[in-house]
Write a structure and sequence with these properties.
The radius of gyration is 22 Å and the shape is globular. By secondary structure, it is of the alpha/beta class. It has 15 helices and 19 strands. Helix 2 (about 40-50) packs across helix 5. It has helices at about 10-15, 40-50, 85-100, 115-120, 155-160, 185-200, 215, 220-230, 245-250, 260-270, 320-335, 360-370, 385-395, 400-405, 455-465; strands spanning about 15-20, 25-30, 35, 60-65, 105, 130-135, 145-150, 165-170, 170-180, 205-210, 235-240, 280-285, 295, 305, 350, 380, 410, 430-435, 450. The model has no long low-confidence stretch (mean pLDDT about 95).
């Protein structure tokens, strides 16, 4: 019997399928790694306690403190968390993980940081895994050839109790990016380009696999940025088949297989690719040379354009829903139809988040900033993605580069990506941000966010206006 050709998603799904109801399409998947943090777990643990249940596999669970953590004065511990609700969530997480014997990196621990930075750097994220977390940007881990996506609080409780997840099989989408990205254009630009092309609902119902020469050329950090933003294109998850770059990144990390187990794992990982002839429900081909340095102008990641372009004129948008959304977005963002993006003044610059806070991102920004100064009137901050990223950056002297340029050098956390900690925008403040969402109020009530790469954010900080260098 000839085995059917399968996509990478098909292979991971089949290997983790515990049970499937063919009639309803509902399935039960085994979960290899459950990442948790302080925001989406209190109710889940309370549910376990109310029903007299424990955590099925604490060894396959990893906890961090990231969303609510302040990015300064972490040495003071929980006493340094001024917001009482945030402090309560952090205290509750500490109690819950202690009670159930779950590995936990608390605020201030050098291993702590943003959950989607910590998982890979600890070697907990590995090819072929199923990975879930109560956070939508869990798709980041797909860069390793892992099926990774966010789940809701009730699902967090279910995974804690059973190490399984109720799920439905998605369709397969292939996004092939061939050729070479132009100089100065990177993964963040590519991701925003794709979202602008397909829309924030374009990937709905799909798991996307990225392939092609431009994808193979990306570093692991770049691949994580691309997969991180898959959710912003509506996809359930993003995947990139593992290769030698993947294996080199994982090898030697604390939780990576050792000795003979490494060779065994490697033999399996090398089978994780989409077979020739596998069925795709949708295929999108992109010429990498057509991708430009890209930023958002509106209040949705799909409202993006080349940085040297202009804000659209709503009357020229055919789709009535998108036309109305553009009108609202321009009003909120304080921009005029047809206005050039270059030269728009900014108040704040944020380099960080699970999208762009890894060492490669900081190095790229530092290269732009070295020997220069942040423009007068602009408040700029850099927030490393983890304690280990911060330590490495300081070992390389990057902290001094940022500080001498007038940036604030902060401690790890989600920071200004979302308004759940002290790092927020004031109403109508305009921010050049390396984060992943630009919805109304995302970075603070009334705040205006332009998503962009670390390179463009750094250039904008120096110029004081949206700048391409």
């Amino acid at each position: 019997m000839i085995e059917k050709s399968r996509t990478l998603y098909d292979k991971i799904w089949d290997a983790h399928l515990v049970h499937e109801d063919k009639a309803s399409g509902e399935a039960l998947l085994y979960i290899d790694l459950h990442l948790i943090h302080e925001v989406t777990t209190p109710q889940a643990f309370a549910g376990l306690r109310a029903n007299g249940r424990g955590v099925r596999r604490p060894d396959l669970t990893l906890a961090v403190a990231d969303h609510n953590t302040p990015t300064e004065n972490q040495s003071a511990g929980l006493a340094g968390v001024r917001d009482p609700e945030a402090r309560e969530q952090l205290e509750t997480l500490e109690r819950n993980v202690s009670e159930h014997g779950i590995r936990f990196f608390p605020m201030g621990d050098v291993n702590n940081g943003i959950v989607h930075v910590v998982g890979p750097e600890q070697g907990r994220t590995q090819p072929g895994m199923t990975i879930v977390c109560g956070d939508s940007h869990t798709s980041t881990h797909g860069a390793f050839g892992a099926l990774a996506h966010g789940i809701g609080t009730s699902e967090v409780e279910h995974v804690l109790a059973t190490q399984t997840l109720r799920a439905r099989k998605m369709k397969n989408m292939s996004i092939r990016v061939t050729g070479e990205l132009p100089a100065g254009v990177g993964a963040k630009d590519l991701a925003l380009h794709i979202i602008a092309l397909i829309g924030t609902n374009g990937g709905a119902g799909y798991v996307v696999e990225y392939s092609g020469s431009a994808i193979s050329a990306l570093s692991m950090e770049g691949r994580m940025t691309l997969c991180n933003l898959s959710i912003e294109g509506g996809a359930r998850a993003g995947l990139i088949a593992p290769d030698e770059k993947t294996f080199a990144y994982v090898k030697g990390r604390p939780a990576a297989p050792k000795g003979g187990q490494w060779e065994t794992a490697l033999n399996v990982w090398k089978t994780l690719f989409s077979d020739p002839g596998a069925h795709w429900d949708r295929v999108i081909d992109i010429d990498a040379s057509h991708v430009h340095a890209t930023i958002t102008w509106g209040t949705s990641p799909e409202q993006a354009a080349p940085i040297n372009g202009r804000v659209p004129r709503p009357e020229e948008i055919e789709d009535p829903v998108k036309r109305e959304a553009a009108v609202r977005a321009l009003t909120y963002m304080g921009l005029e139809p047809g206005q050039k993006l270059l030269g728009v003044p900014v108040d704040r610059v944020f380099i960080g988040s699970c999208t762009n806070s890894r060492i490669e991102d900081l190095r790229a920004a530092a290269t732009v900033i070295r020997g220069r100064r942040v423009a007068n009137g602009v408040r700029a901050m850099v927030v490393p993605g983890s304690g280990l990223v911060k330590a490495l950056a300081e070992e390389e002297g990057l902290d001094k580069v940022f500080l001498q340029a007038g940036f604030e050098w902060r401690e790890p956390g989600c920071s200004m990506c979302l308004g759940m900690n002290p790092d927020i925008l004031s109403p109508q403040e305009r921010c050049a941000s390396t984060s992943n969402r630009n919805f109304e109020g995302r970075q603070g009530r009334g705040g205006r966010t332009h998503l962009m790469s670390p390179v463009l954010a750094a250039q904008t900080a120096i110029a004081g206006v949206i700048s391409a260098g």
